[in-house]
Structure formats: C-alpha cells, structure tokens
Amino acid sequence: MRFLLSRRWVLFFLVVVVLAWLATQLGQWQFHRLDERKHDNRIVSTNLKLAPAPVDEVLSTDRAPSTDDEWRRVTVHGTWDDRNSIVLKYQTRDAGAGVDVITPLVTEGGPAVLVDRGWMSTQNSGADRPELPAVTDGPVTVTGWVRRDATGGATRVSQLSTRAVSSVAIAKVLPYPLYRGFVDLAEQSPEPSAKLQPTELPDDQSNGPHFFYGLQWWFFGILAVFGFCYLAWEEFRQHREKRRTGTSQRPERAAVHGEHHAGHER
Predict the structure, then answer these.
(1) Which residues contact 198 (CB under 8 A, 6 or more apart)?
(2) Residue 164 falls within a domain, yes or no?
(3) Strand 53-54 relative to strand 73-80: parallel, antiparallel, unpaired?
(4) What is the mean pLDDT of each run of 10 residues along the chain (266 residues)?
(5) Which residue, 211, 200, 185, is CA-closest to 30?
(6) CA gap 68, 15 in Å, rounded
C-alpha cells in the first residue's frame, strides 16, 4: 500500500476529503432549510386560521411586520387613492404575462395601507403603463393578508411602477405616511365593479424538496469516499498482480539460463 504515499494519491485523497466535507455541509444546510420551512408552515397555517384583526394592531408606520405577522388577516377602512396606484411589473400567472395593481388605501387616521388589489393580464412589456381597472368610490372596507416588504434594487419606483413591493420605497413618492409592509386583497365591501385575480395563498402543507436534496448531497459524499476506496483497491490489486507475475517468471528464466550454460560445457 506504499503507493498511497505517492504525491498523486495524497492529492487525490485530499480532494476526496474536501468533496466529502462539502457534501456533508450542503446536506446539513438543506436539512436546516427544511426545519425553517416547517417552522414557516406552522406560522402560515396558524395565521391563515386567525380572525381578521384591525390593521393598526398588526402593522405600524415605524416598524416592519415580522415573519410571525406575515399572512395574518387584517381589516382596513378607508378610501382608495387611485391616482397613485403602483404597477407591479412582470408578474405571471399560468405562464401568462401581466401585472399586479398596488393601490394605497388612505385611512381616516391619516396613514395609508398599500393594497395589492390583484393580478391582471397585460402585454407585460414594461414600457407602457397599462390601463388599470377603476376603484370603488367612497369609503370601503378591505380585508387582506399581511405581506412583508421586498428589498434590493428591484424595489425602485419609477413613473409609479416597480418590480417588487416595498412600502419604504413607495412612501418616497407619496404625499402621506404609509404603514410598513403591504396587504394582499382578500375581500372588499362594497365589492368592486371590476375584480382582479386574487393572490394565490401559500401551500402550508408542502415542505419543499429540501429533504431529498439533503439526502442527495450526503449520497454524493458517500459516493466520493466509496470511489476513492474502490480505486485504491484496484491499484493495490494491480500492484499485487504485477508482483506475482514477476515472481513466477524469474525462476523460469533461471532454469532456461542453467540449461544454456550446461550446453556450453558439453
């Protein structure tokens, strides 16, 4: 087994160790993601079953909603500010192009709540603002699900359009304060004359692919170790076969040499 100390095999061994360690860590990460998914599912399942709460009991103008608040149902009373509706671009449903319509609902107390009224089919080019369905005039009561703000460059607002909803970014272009986060519309009273497609609720029963991904990474780690052991055994077997073949040939050569020497003496 001295060949294992050669430079080639030492480097091979180190590569296998690194690959096996990396696969183990990635597997652990997937199982950690699975635990997070189960935790989130429990929160969503609980929140979806809770009775609607007044908006100011869940949302605040100076505090972002927490992960425990997401998918809570809240009730808001106010009037729509249709002039400042925001177009959420590049949204698809069933492979169809479209946009979501985000309209501020101004409460009697002053702050407004961003409400995602739903999805509508459009050409989705992003270049032109589509014609949006009219809102209901006068006071309305809205019930919907609390959502957390998006982050990053996609939240930038330009000409009342954006690619991701952020109450912080949208507040910069509105003349009144906003509750942090936003609400996906579930019900409105009185009902609007033109309804948009409602938000799709999350599947709180699915744990996603994390368990099988974790098993796959661990399998790759085991496969790397097994492959190294198999190749090392094959190398050992070939070395042993060469030694055995070489040993069996040396006596035959000695015998032939002895016969040749005896012939010269005669």
Answers:
(1) 118, 184, 185, 186
(2) yes
(3) parallel
(4) 75 90 93 87 87 94 92 96 94 88 92 96 76 92 96 94 96 95 96 88 80 90 90 82 70 53 52
(5) 211
(6) 43
* Spatial separation of the C-alpha atoms in residues 234 and 215, rounded to whole Å: 28
In a domain, 26, yes or no: no
Cα distance between residue 247 and residue 53, in whole Å? 89
| Predicted structure pTM score | 0.72
Name the token pair of 42. Answer: 């429990």
β partners of residue 78? 107, 140
Q: What is the CATH number of the domain that holds 69?
A: 2.40.50
CA distance 21 to 218: 9
Quickly tell me which residue has 């100390």 as its tokens: 5
Tell me how far apart the alpha carbons of residues 177 and 168 are, in angstroms, rounded to a whole number: 10
- Cα angle: 55, vertex 147, 178; to 5 degrees: 55
What is the domain range of residue 110? Answer: 51-189
Q: Are 34 and 208 in contact (CB under 8 A)?
A: yes
Q: 7-49 vs 210-265: helix axis angle to the nearest 10? A: 170
CB contact burial 98-107 (16+ within 10 A = b; e otherwise): bbbbbbbbbb
Number of domains present in the structure of the chain: 1
